[in-house]
Amino acid sequence: MCYSLYLSTDSSQDLSGENSELICFQKETIADPFRSMLENERQWYVASRSGCSCTFRHLFSTGLGFSEPEDWYKEDETEIAATKSFIKIVRRLVEKGQKVDCIDAWYGAVKEDIVEMRVNLKDMADEQFRFFENHHFIFSHGD
Q: What letters, b where the CB count within 10 A reaches 16 and e where it falls short, cover 87-97?
C-alpha cells in the first residue's frame, strides 16, 4: 500500500519546524493533478515515520466516519499518534484563521478519484480524526 498526503495552507509558517519522529513536512514540488486541486499557495508533502504517508490512520471508506479508536478495530498506536500530531497542527493553523486543506491519495489515483470533504474541527476531538482514501479535506473551525 502507498498513500500520499499533500497539504496546502495560506500560512507563511515553515511547517518543517513541526517535524518529529512521527510526521515530516517536506516542501517540494507536488505533481498534478494534486497540485492544481489544492486550494492554497504554500504546499507540503506530509510523510509519516515510514517515509511515505502510509503510517497515519486511513480507511478506504467513509462508512465508519470519524471516531476514536475502538477495541474491536485494532490500529497501530504510532499511526494514531502520528494522525493526532497532524490534526493538532492543522487545528492550530485553522484556529488562527489560516486556510488549510489536504489530499489523501492512494498510489495511482487520478483527479476524478478524489472526493471533497469539508471538515469542521470545532466539534471534533483530535482522537476522532482519520484520513479517508482519495479524499480532499477542507478544514474549518465552525465558520
A: bebbbebbeee
pTM: 0.93
Q: The sheet that has 23-26: what strands, in order across it?
A: 23-26, 42-48, 3-9, 100-106, 135-140, 115-120
Q: 21-31, pLDDT tens digit by residue?
A: 999 999 977 77
Is the torsion defined by CA of 71, 73, 74, 80 positive or negative?
Answer: negative
Q: Are 88 and 95 in contact (CB under 8 A)?
A: no
Specify whether the CB–CB gap between 123 and 95 falls below 8 A: no
Phi–psi pair at 31, nearest 5 degrees: -75, 150
Dist CA 143 CA 140 (whole Å)? 6
> pLDDT tens across 61-101, in order?
888 889 988 888 788 899 999 999 999 999 999 999 999 99
Q: Is 39 exposed, middle or buried (0-12, 13-18, 19+ CB in 10 A)?
A: middle
